[in-house]
Amino acid sequence: MEIHINTGNGMENKTTLETWADSEIRRTLGRFSDDVHRIEVHLSDENSGKGGADDKRCVIEAHVTQLPAVAVTHQASSVDEAFRGAESKARRALDSLLGKHKEHRDHTSIRTQPEVLED
Fold first, then answer.
1. pLDDT per residue as tens digits for the range 86-108
2. DSSP for the chain?
3. What is the average pLDDT across 24-33?
4. Where is this region: Disordered (predicted)?
5. Could you tell me the domains of the chain?
């Protein structure tokens, strides 16, 4: 699974932030590695240092093999909160999307099973 971390202008400590985000994505979304071939994380500061409520933004795009990509966004007052909010949304969206496309139950009918005789 490829992971691309993109940080926008106005973001401080880009290298540290990218390393941290990469390890967090691998830890929390790694279980989807058989189905997801690429994850892109976009971190940005909407007001570039001017401050303000909910000015940090995180967009996570998960490119799923043979299915449409999943994209989620979360805005918060800190990069950590924005990232964790988007990460949580991405996990739920992937669970939902992939859960609908996997076989969960054995679809054999009890009507076709041989009769069980009790002693």
1. 999 999 999 999 888 776 555 56
2. -EEEEEE-TT-SSHHHHHHHHHHHHHHHHGGGTTTEEEEEEEEEETTTTS--TT-EEEEEEEEETTS--EEEEEEESSHHHHHHHHHHHHHHHHHHHHHHTS--S----GGGSPPPPP-
3. 93
4. 94-119
5. 2-101 (3.30.160.100)
